[in-house]
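One such shown below:
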Amino acid sequence: MTFTGSRAGCRRRLIKDCGGAPAGLASGAMTYPEVTPELLLRGYASGIFPMAESRTAPAVYWVDPTLRGIFPLNGFHISKSLARRIRRDEVTISVDRDFEGVIDGCADRPDTWINPTLRRAYSELFAAGAAHSLEVWRGKALVGGVFGIALGAGFFGESMFSRVTDASKIALAYLVDRLRQGGFTLFDTQFLTEHLASLGAIEIPRDHYRALLSDAILRDADFAAPDIPAAQEMLQRMTHTS
């Protein structure tokens, strides 16, 4: 996941990292005839992640980049302007309140990697308690959010969206705080973009990522346990350690 809501901009990167380009996407990417929630979890635990070439493409590819994007959980960067926006308290935050609405927001663009197969599988993982969403609301309107998969102490970010300025950045700030409070040790963003790098994300080699992953999936963490903090409380925690 590029955390931009669409992986289209990373297709050239996929080809570079995986080598070649069969079927218009990437070699080194693997396909399976059926994508189930169990298969998804095995894929994440193995260090690979799924994507479809487009909304209507039937195939799901499993991708294993040589370089992996992650957020060091103590390194998330909140700019002064973002901190001011959060302090204005113009939005409210919820967790797992509208998972389907967040997926709708992430897929609401001309080009999306979320095809019906992946959408169904993520919804089933949410029902099983393995997928989670964090929502940003302005009044009764869902204006931003992020969703991903929790496995052990690893969180695998899939996509985010924003309908008002900085809503996705606010979602990420609250998400990183939640992961830290819940005992997570790995926040996987799959790829690194300029946007994510500006917030503190980094890129690490595949072997380093797999070492972090192997440790994380053996640990216990709880996405649901932490309370949703007040804006100032979250900012104090985040700015004191980043």
